[in-house]
Amino acid sequence: MRRRTESGSCSEAPGAINSDIENPHKVYEKAETFWSRCTQDEDGMLGGIPSLHGPDVVGSTNFLKILKKNLIVTKFDNALDCGAGIGRVTKHVLMNSFDSVDMVDLVDELVATSADYIGTDDGIGEKFVEGLQTFEPPIQKYDVVWIQWVSGQLTDQDLTSFLQRCIKGLAPNGTIVIKESVSAGGKTLYHDSDGCWTRPESLLLKIAQNAGLHVVHKTVQTGFPKGLFAVKMIALKPVHPVEEDDD
Length: 247
Description:
By secondary structure, this protein is an alpha/beta fold.
């Protein structure tokens, strides 16, 4: 999972690892090691900048309200929090809107901590411990799949494949939301410390398009300190709408 928000500590120099590499296992191992060692609290989930929590929650909540108002999201039965960690987004954003929220994260210790952090099992569905590069969401279950600060942990191909599996996990009229830091200047930046990439928005949208998705609404997160990457919230729908019992 990824919570890369700072614009420093990255590389585009020769020798930096590209996001289209064919064998990313060492990068994925580095990410798992990094996140298993981070503190199991909001500070750890937000890369040492806990002041992001308030404006992040407000921005995400308002984005969901817009999606509801514009009839982009019309049901609020089930949501999936991808890269959920201790459940920060689950608790403060998704549980306020959805009847049940499932969580998936790579690090078992973070998922285990979520019970104490969230403080209740009411409204929590299944908890999956698995990397998104292999995770297969339950078929046709989710009204919203929420992917925040974690898409950069996957290579271009693995992200494409994951989004395709997420489409299969959508209920009819379901929506995928990607909330992600984006780089400027059209360049993908690699962060060696936690084994992740920050992509330009154009590449992120191209990957979504290749997966069979199109943008229905997007906006930029506001209220963050200067010196951080811009953060975009992007709502996506399948090009071919999901129908009941559609294979």
